[in-house]
Specification:
With 241 residues, the protein is mostly helical. It has 13 helices and no strands.
């Protein structure tokens, strides 16, 4: 596993937000070095990332995987699918998903994953190949989501919280306080309540596909609606890769 793309830090963050595997553990020395050396991040954030780098590099793989699932797969309010925090299961989400797929194709990007296109690690992998200004603008549109995720994870004393602080700094944007408050106003899910979890996600799957009228807009155009988040509605989960 090598880091050879234009923005090594975005690629590194994409990897640490992916389902933990033994291959990821083997790559953590390189990934940690990338995160520790990026001066776009403050010294405080770089220090705060060390516990996660250490845990992913040397922790028990099964415990790491269980923690990841409990956080990101069993908590709707911590979902790594960005449009979940914006559109929920509304019809707008389907159109945004189609546009995102078209943008990936227009950029020659073909994600090798079964995750949805709005899955944050997938988007970061794409942005790692794009011009710096475009990547920062796209991240800026999601700055309030990153701030809310950081706050929720901090409340759980999770080592993943600084990752979203890092993304906020890479966005070079100040998150909209009202939008952050709206997201944080949603009640936290209890990942141990499996009955409630089943009820939350017991909805039809979001579908999307080629749309001859969708065109190939820039990523910023697709994500601009993130400025006014809507209350998420249930959706089914994709298995983590």
């Amino acid at each position: 596993m090598t880091l050879v793309l234009n923005d090594r830090t975005l690629k590194a963050i994409s990897l640490v937000l992916s389902y933990p595997t033994e291959a990821l553990q083997s790559a953590m020395p390189e990934i940690g070095g990338v995160l520790a050396s990026d001066t776009r991040l403050t010294a405080a954030v770089r220090r705060a990332l060390r516990p996660l780098v250490t845990a992913l590099g040397g922790g028990d793989i099964y415990e790491l995987q269980e923690r990841f699932v409990m956080l990101f797969d069993r908590s709707r309010t911590l979902s790594l699918n960005l449009f979940e925090h914006v559109h929920g299961e509304s019809r707008d989400r389907g159109g945004a998903m189609v546009s995102l797929v078209e943008t990936y194709r227009d950029g020659g990007f073909d994600p090798a994953t079964s995750e949805l296109p709005d899955h944050l690690p997938v988007l970061l992998e794409f942005l790692a190949t794009r011009p710096a200004a475009e990547a920062a603008d796209t991240l800026a549109d999601a700055a309030h989501i990153f701030a809310a995720l950081s706050e929720r994870l901090s409340r759980r004393e999770s080592v993943y919280a600084p990752v979203f602080d890092a993304l906020g700094q890479l966005s070079r944007a100040q998150p909209d306080a009202e939008a952050v408050s709206a997201l944080l106003g949603q009640e936290d899910d209890d990942p141990t309540d499996l009955a409630a979890l089943d009820a939350v996600w017991d909805e039809a799957q979001v579908t999307f596909g080629p749309d001859p009228n969708a065109g190939c807009p820039q990523v910023r155009d697709m994500l601009s609606n993130m400025e006014t988040p809507k209350t998420p509605a249930p959706k089914p989960r994709h298995a983590a890769e």
